[in-house]
Design a protein that fits this description.
single chain; 96 residues; alpha+beta; Alpha-Beta Plaits; 10% helix
C-alpha cells in the first residue's frame, strides 16, 4: 500500500510479519515530546535486529549491513528497543 505515491507504508519481515513504516499522517512527526531517548552503543550491538522488529513506531532504521539507528523524528521514547536488546547495547538517556 502506498500513500500519495510515496514510499510503501508496510514491509515484510522474514517471519511473514507485517511491520508498518512511520509516515506523516495527521500527527506528523511525533518525537518532539519524549522525556527519554534511546542511544545505541554500536560497539556492543550484535545486529540481532530485535530492536528493529519490536519498535512499535518503526523508528529503528536498519542499514544494509544490519546496523541500526534511531529516527528521532518518530521515536516516542517508549524504551521497547532497550528492553528487547539482549546485549543491553541501547540505553535510555534523558532528553536535554
Amino acid at each position: 500500500m502506498q500513500l500519495g505515491g510515496g514510499e510503501p507504508v508496510t514491509r515484510r519481515y522474514e517471519a511473514d510479519t507485517t511491520i508498518s513504516y512511520p509516515c506523516q499522517g495527521a500527527a506528523g512527526r511525533t518525537g518532539g515530546w519524549r522525556d527519554f531517548k534511546p542511544v545505541i552503543n554500536q560497539a556492543e550491538c550484535i545486529k540481532c535486529l530485535r530492536c528493529w522488529v519490536y519498535c512499535p513506531e518503526n523508528a529503528v532504521k536498519r542499514a544494509e549491513d544490519d546496523s541500526v539507528s534511531i529516527d528521532y523524528d518518530y521515536c516516542k521514547g517508549c524504551g521497547v528497543c532497550a528492553w528487547e536488546c539482549p546485549k543491553k547495547a541501547i540505553t535510555m538517556v534523558r532528553e536535554d
